Structures
1.
Amino acid sequence: MKHCEEFAALLDPYLDGELSPEDAARVREHLAGCDRCRAYVQAALAIRDAFPAAEDVEVPEGFADGVMAAVRADSLRQKRRRTRWAKRLAPLVACCAVVVLAVSLLPQLQRNTAVSPAQDAAETALLDEGDASAAIENDSGAQVPAQQDLDPSAKQALPSPSDSEEGAGQTSPADVPDSSASAPEAEAVSPEAAEREAILAPYSVQSTPSLTLTAEEAGDLLSGFAPAEETEDGLLYELTAAEYSDLLGRLEQEGLTVAGAATAEEAAAAGGAMVLVVPS
Amino acid sequence: MKEQTREHQLVMAAKGGDEDAFAALVRLYEKRVFALAVRMCGSREDAAEAAQEAFLAAWQGLSFFRGDASFSTWLYRLTSNACVDLLRREGRHRSAAGPSLDDEGLSLDVPDTALSPQDEAERQELREAIDRGLAALSPEHRQILILREMHQLSYDEIAEALSLDAGTVKSRISRARRQLRNFLLKDGNFSPPAASKATGKEG
Ligand SMILES: [Zn+2]
């Protein structure tokens, strides 16, 4: 029946109430004269009529209590994790601080191969983050010499994200308007390098490929995932490379470009990516 | 309506960290979640585990649940994911028992197989056959039919719950239904044809 082919694709939406009234009327008209399509619809309705009902399922005894016990245990764990997370961030920052340092010191390192003092300084600085802000204050007054001499106090300013920006500022022409005048030799850091640094700094915390979204941006794109951790900043999700790539695709579909997002390739190379969702 | 308002209040309270409100939501949804999980996972033990994971994921993700999808749709999505994860994790790919339904040789030439079970016993028999048929479907087909027929989600809601586009929802439902029907035909579970007047009502 040639006619039936036209209707075959309409039968299920018809059964499911997904057709416009006009189309539904056309289907009804066809059904009146077509045994084959009618048989299909009747079978489907019989299946619906006898379909197992959720109400009939017997939930294991104590199921809800078990869920709530797990929920409470999880709440406790989350509280502990929040502190752990802070500790876990520190080494990441340390390692990135070294990266930032390495970039900012690259020209100097050619003359002065003091890599390990730099690392030491970065690590030491982490241990007394409390002093870091003080160090910044000191620092901004003596940026150029500090850099030249690899003075540990300069590196102390690097470790936390805001400090890193400060670190980037050290070579930024905007922050040091007359740096070229005061230290023409030290200005071995090319504008390109300074720029690279400035780009690096804000994301220096991210050693694993990562992406930060506001809750609004994330929408329910991540609603199918359970967060790996609840941090003070927001929920942290650990995605596989494929999931991450899929997420990027969806964000793109929604016309969202997120600055600093790790690429799918980076995630693939690292075997996954972290997504932090912060409250909007 | 009243039910929805209550649900909304519970969701809002739970979002704010109210564990008792969340417990009420668990009780409200445990049957529906478990019913989906038990058919997706194939055993009550696995289903209990997956259902618990789904609720836990809901609790953890609740602060980011925006409420433009319905809570139930979102919960079914978490349940589906938990079941898929569990099966994958345990390497428990249950191969479909029974005849393969993947061949699309739809026996549409079966004359008028109208079936309207006369009594509750017949309906019960058909219900059991449907359960066997569901178990023989691929997980994707089983899942989508359950969301449609048992949980009565609209195509849009299913698209939302399963992250599918509308066209895929439509075609998958159609395939799933045809396969289930084929199973029942082969299983001999359709009762003899009833009067062959058009049953044009959608339910
Ligand atoms: Zn027809």
2.
Amino acid sequence: MRGFLSVYKREIISYFSTPLAYVFLVIFLFFSHWLPFQRNFFELRTASMWLFFDGLPLLFIFLVPAMAMRLWAEERGSNSIELLFTLPITVPAAVLGKFFAAWTVLIIALALTCPMVLTVSYLGNPDWGPIVTGYLGSVLLAGAYLAIGSFFSSITRNQVIAFVLAVVGCAVFLYAGSPTVLGVLHRAFPMGVVEAVESLSFRGRFEDMQRGIVALRDLAFFVFLPAGWLAANIVVLRRR
Amino acid sequence: MIEVKGLRKSFGPIVAVDDVSFSVGQGDVLGFTGPNGAGKTTTMRMLSCFLRPDAGTATVAGYDIIDESVNVRRNLGYLAENVPAYNEMTATGFLKFVCDARGINGSKRRQAIERIAETCSITGVMHQLIGTLSKGYRRRVGLAQTLIHDPPVLVLDEPTDGLDPNQKFEVRKLIKNLAKERCIIVSTHILEEVDAICNRMIVMDRGGIRADSTPRELREEVGGSLDDIFLTLTTGETAGRSDAAKPEPADAREGGGQ
Ligand SMILES: Nc1ncnc2c1ncn2[C@@H]1O[C@H](COP(=O)(O)OP(=O)(O)O)[C@@H](O)[C@H]1O
Ligand SMILES: [Mg+2]
């Protein structure tokens, strides 16, 4: 616990004492607001956050790996990893400390979109259920992407490689559930495979949450999938 | 306080450390010498639990480096080669982090940082970013990190490398002062340093130990200066006595010491 807290604290300080967090927050806030307005937020004429949430999975595909790429690749590149792991800090504590620190920044980013909520509630009478579950889904989705990014960051000392692999990894998990992909798979594979791929995808689950549906198995998915990636991350870092 | 038993580590086809065993007791300062690539750093990385040995093990302060690695790391101060640190942090911020990780909290933390800043003469640069420090100061901040928890065992990988003569003198003095109650391993390829601060000496070459003795005994057994002994042990040439016959003894010595 001590190891976890010390890493968590160091990471948070490092995010906010360098331009990193601020640049990230500004870019995220800009695009997360620009995308819905781009897609005629006002002309939709319903007081809902639907367009806002709908753009997030794609936006996160680029922004979350950008956040995650430094997590381990930077430690390896500058060799500070040798310092980190010769302190009495276990690998799981360090992996989780870094993960939760980065997730905290992502959650702060999402929290800073609250003016959007205020706008919607000012313009009309929104249905609060989907807004709450939409945010829950966004936080979970960000965590899932982050775990994927953290893993890819641990297998290389090059941050660019870590970024590219993470973007591809996240895209696979997002688009696995798209009708196009499933259609193609359906022609070549038995139904079981298609269903398995669909069940691994973020897409359907996130869309359900956007609509206000929170199923226990979706929550479990968003806990176990990141846990799996982080476990792989721990295994990679233990092999030294 | 350090017992090393049959440590081995290879990187692909390169066997960096090959069946190395030795022990170091309390009050000992062991000079760990050998040419570049001998396997000194790799051995020290295994002792500090950064690398996992392929075979063999070691105990540090009574704890096994594989099974009780957290306890080993609690009792060990390790200064890695090239002094890794977080460049975007100030020296103070960095030392605070190290204290947190080591469970030194509250007013104890403040005192520990004040004390160590004094000991390592870094009081003036405490608020500077580590990435902007000169090499000498960076190394001293590294030493501060190594010593802040007052560990009984110290492993220092080339602590004077790249320092100017005054700084070298300071660091040697510091190590000497620390020696009494502790067990220290210092790697170096400056042999006068071994003479100045060590009561034990190990010569390593190509992953194995060529000599494990004291500087004085080595001189008596092999004869000649430490430089000559080093050359003999690591290249097989008998430098001391063939000096006259050889046209470039100085160069040969240089090569052995690299
Ligand atoms: N991470 C690594 N990957 C591959 N080879 C390595 C690695 N670390 C060390 N080596 C090799 O192991 C040998 C011993 O290196 P090292 O322990 O650094 O020697 P020394 O510290 O005595 O100069 C060298 O041949 C070096 O190239
Ligand atoms: Mg070395």
